[in-house]
Amino acid sequence: MGEETLRAQPPKGMAMALQLNTPTPKFAVVGHPNKGKSSIVASLANDDSVKISDTPGTTTKSRSFPFRVDGTVVYTLFDTPGFQRARQVLAWLHRQDVSAHRRAEAVEAFIRAHQHDPKYNDEVELLTPIVQGAGIIYVVDGSKPYGVEYEAEMEILRWTGQPSMALINRIESSDYTQEWRRALEQYFRSVREYDPMCTDPAQKIALLETMAQLEEAWTPLVKRSIGLFEHSVKQKREESAKTIARLMQNTLSYVVQLQIQNETPSEAQEQKVRTLYQNHLRVLEERSQQTIEKLWQHKRLQKVQEKLLFEEIDLFSKESESIFGLSREEMLVTGITGGAVTGAGIDLLFAGHTLLLGGAIGAVVGGVGAYFGFDKIAEVKLLGRTLGSKYLETGPMENRNFPYILLGRSLYHLSAISRRSHAKRGTAEIAMDTSFKTLWMSEEMRKSLEKIHTKFRTGKALEGEEMQRYEALILTCIDKVVL
Ligand SMILES: Nc1nc2c(ncn2[C@@H]2O[C@H](COP(=O)(O)OP(=O)(O)O)[C@@H](O)[C@H]2O)c(=O)[nH]1
Ligand SMILES: [Mg+2]
């Protein structure tokens, strides 16, 4: 047994009472090497620290993953090494020549006899949590044909006498589910399909329902975990809405000042205040994304997100617009109908039409940045103060399109995070297409949002009730983009 198996996780408060009365349900996820056992544990435990690898034999120790909802341990999963010598183990068991009612004892005897035998390390590791009371979740790859070599594994599991079920995980696209079903149903009362890469809560809930039925004593706790899980999904959405609403308010109302000594600001000073402004908005967006990743329990992702996932959609990069998927015309329309037409707005509208005709507009309006309006996100103003100090100031955000770009990016990020399975490793390519916007942005929604964005632009904070209304609007958008 790995050290971590013994690492007690003290339950808190209400959880304590529950745990004292009923044993915490435990499930050992077992099977052949490289069939997705660790992936299933990661998905069921909402834990992206589970070791998942293409190399068979990566897991050599059983490791426990307590699944907590709001600090309450509702069940514990064991990730285990795969069977290596199932046939020899079964032969050993047969040699014990015991009758059916003593088979579980024979398995225990096997573990005792081979505790320190490296040859049977993996079998000892995987059987230990089972003989200590864990239910069995036997995992197979339904994209590979069934074979008799699995029968020794299933037979050993049957000898333990523990409640058990089988999961068919299709790693590749070929489909041998039917033949697997016929074989598995001979050994297991319930056989289900499960895809650890899919994050639809409905799939997980259906599996939990089956797990709840495995053992009567576990039913209330596992059922409770379903309730808590559903509640936590709702809570994550609400917290995400609050986080995004706060980001919007903080970004759109942000103002930065730079004190200067000279009478007329230099080009460099103006550039500096612009850079300060933009960098701060980037930091705000980054922090908001980190908050959301943490909320959705992507601990690992947090550290690598810049490099792996999101560098393509840097807030002020030219790619932002195309990734967000607003056409140039649509962006301009958003800006124009959003409120009074500003000078910059008219310029943009003009520039936009020209460019849409395919002219070399760069030379006329000063580059793509100007065209998209990002150079005019906020005017740099010179403010005089008493006693001769002068300030360069920029903010709040004037660009009418910007809020929708930022909101779109936030929703897209959230959608990607909520769909990212905890079993997923490595880089994911994410590319927003134009259809994304249509999921959450209707004309009605835009109008409601615009009323509030207009207030943000004045730089004042919203009253509590107004902010709640804004959060509710964002939650409506979230419900449309999150599974
Ligand atoms: N595409 C895909 N890959 C999977 C799936 N399940 C597992 N894998 C991959 O298969 C490999 C082995 O998975 P792992 O969970 O480590 O298997 P284990 O050895 O049984 O624990 C890893 O590269 C996983 O990313 C699946 O449902 N779909
Ligand atoms: Mg593994």
Helix/strand order, N-terminal first:
HHEHEEHHHEHEHEHHEHHHHHHHEEHHHH
Please indicate the count of domains: 2
Mean pLDDT: 76
Uncertain spans: 1-20, 301-376
Largest sheet: 6 strands, mixed
What structural class is derived from the secondary structure elements? alpha/beta
Note the gap between the termini: 37 Å
Strand order of the largest sheet: 2-3-1-4-5-6
Instruction: State the helical fraction.
Output: 40-55%
Rg from Cα: 29 Å
Identify every distinct bound molecule in the structure, by name, code or SMILES.
guanosine-5'-diphosphate, magnesium ion
- Please indicate the percent range of residues in DSSP E strands (runs of 2 or more): 5-15%
- The count of strands amounts to 9
Shape: elongated
What does this structure look like?
This protein is elongated. The model is unreliable at 1-20 and 301-376 (pLDDT under 50). The chain starts with a helix and ends with a helix. By secondary structure, it is an alpha/beta fold. Helix 9 packs antiparallel against helix 10. It has two domains: 3-214, P-loop containing nucleotide triphosphate hydrolases (Rossmann fold, 3-Layer(aba) Sandwich), CATH 3.40.50.300; 235-481, no CATH class. The strands form two sheets. It has a six-stranded mixed sheet, with helices on both faces. Strands 7-9-8 form a three-stranded antiparallel sheet, with helices on one face. Helix content is 55%, strand content 11%. The longest helix is centred in the middle third of the chain and has 34 residues, at 219-252. Bound molecules: guanosine-5'-diphosphate and magnesium ion. Guanosine-5'-diphosphate (GDP) binds next to helix 3.
